[in-house]
Write a structure and sequence with these properties.
Two copies of one chain form a homodimer. By secondary structure, chain A is mostly beta strands. Chain A contains two helices and 22 strands.
């Protein structure tokens, strides 16, 4: 059976709200291909297309997808199998009022730099400008080649109460801009509403930890995922948790990096305590010896940090 | 010719000051073994030895070592060849008023946890309690084993003006608590004073990025380094720069993580601009695509961040 495809043309949101209604309902275990448009909705196609201010609608997230059986207290596992680029170029931009070095004299905004995908015609799937499925191994920035290493920037579920635009990361996920939200990894979300209401978009062909200028190489994609509902999980999570081949990573967003570090570390302390029978102080001391804090992004309205725990010290929490 | 050894018994400082005088003078190119005592000067030898408040003198740094020919404007390269543990146990501690989760109800301070080095007698060099040179591959934390992966916590040179205790990181280095200050890497320091006046100590058998509880596994060590003066460097640096096998990493310390991120990124922007003829905005956009921001430590009086640039995009700046 081929994967079902859900496109941004079927539905996309600019806000994660408690009362989202699914555009599709799928069963736990379903394999999907999700098509996403670029974070700027196609508005930037050349170096001359500059974005003056952060658009009111940005980071369109394809969905929401309702998952049967997901209900408050369960966990939604999103296994990311592949992220393929679906257009021939990405774009990096600066916007006035946005970015780590916003306001520094030497930095100009707005500015746009297109980053073409390097591929030869032979590798294209289909013909006549159809999606470049999985072709190309690099993007170009001027004379430099950068390996393609796609990241999903915005991914989340319907929140518990307050709504969050797709520019904001929080406990429901949202604009996490985290390089580990990538093929080969699984992201676990707390479910706050029936059906979970998963949506994702805002992908990048490449992105640095930090996303300093405010974007990676923003690009349309096709994402292969498998969705699983974990009923009655052994561990309750309050925020997204990422599983990579080597580590479990708590993910926390807050007003300041200090506060995000605290939350991510507190979540790690809780997981380590549960796994090893540590009291919180012991778990905190242990967390200071292995893995550690990582920066996801420092540019969104809330900033995001993760705390990596090597798998050697943490079996699956679920 | 065997390496010259400089011990903490020959001299150690608790403050990096502009007017430091060397306890030894060596030529550029000298290979040294530097012996360091643990950051708490041996005060903690069992779980019952608790540290109530941050000691006035902490992180003793062996030295200062004057390097012939180092003068303001040159760069001192410290190539770290090996870090061997020199005692049979390290220690992790919490101290009231210190650490990422200081003040959270569930965290107790003071608390001490000794972390024994796992080694069998056969591997010991010498006899009768001499240094355990390079023995053991793990430390224990309760039932858990942690691979030994030593880090130099405090390393720096005489600053330009203001003095900094060895608890504080700044442009001269100091208490950087950065996991990349490790064997196999080279740390480059700006030279502010004749002779540079290098000193180092405060090593850890293992440490997480962030050093959340305020310490790693603090332990005495023997460090093999080679010191090289780079006269008239092509690039002037204002802060430490680390070379790992795969990346160049700018290192910046500041009051907040946000500010440290800005400084580390500005330094990366400058290096990328010089290497590729980018204007600052182009370099900033490029920095947002590769490598990225990393957390060194979030607990010292100033916090420390690095910005990694893969070597594919940055030849040696010197």
């Amino acid at each position: 059976m081929s994967r079902r495809t859900i496109s941004h043309e079927d539905g996309a949101i600019y806000e994660f709200a408690a009362d989202l209604e699914g555009i599709e309902t799928v069963e736990s275990g379903t394999e999907l291909t999700i098509e996403t448009r670029d974070s700027l909705d196609g508005a930037v196609q050349s170096d001359d297309d500059e974005i003056e201010t952060v658009p009111e609608e940005v980071n369109a997230a394809t969905g929401p997808i309702a998952v049967d059986g997901a209900e408050p207290g369960s966990v939604l596992a999103v296994q990311i199998e592949a992220i393929r680029l679906a257009e021939e170029q990405g774009r990096v931009i600066t916007i006035d009022g946005f970015g780590l070095l916003d306001g520094f004299d030497e930095i100009e905004a707005p500015r746009t730099r297109m980053t073409p995908v390097e591929s030869d015609g032979d590798e294209r799937a289909g013909d006549n400008g159809g999606p470049i499925e999985g072709t190309g191994s690099e993007i170009r920035f001027g004379d430099l080649e950068i390996p393609i290493d796609p990241v999903i920037g915005t991914i989340g579920v319907a929140p518990a109460g307050e709504s969050y635009t797709t520019l904001v990361p929080h406990d429901h996920g949202g604009n996490l801009d985290t390089t580990d939200v990538a093929a080969g990894n699984t992201v676990y979300f707390p479910v706050f509403q029936d059906g979970a209401m998963l949506a994702m978009g805002d992908c990048k062909a490449a992105m640095a930890d930090g996303e300093m200028c405010g974007t990676g190489s923003e690009i349309a994609t096709e994402i292969d995922v498998t969705l699983e509902v974990i009923d009655d999980p052994e561990t309750t999570i309050e925020r997204p948790l990422i599983e990579t081949p080597g580590a479990w990573k708590t993910v926390a967003s807050a007003e300041t990096l200090e506060e995000a570090c605290q939350r991510a570390n507190l979540d790690a302390v809780e997981l380590l305590s549960a796994a090893h029978g540590f009291d919180p102080t012991e778990a905190y001391m242990f967390s200071s010896l292995v893995g550690g804090l990582e920066i996801s992004q420092v540019v969104d309205p809330l900033v995001t940090v993760r705390n990596a725990i090597p798998k050697a010290y943490l079996p699956t929490p679920f």
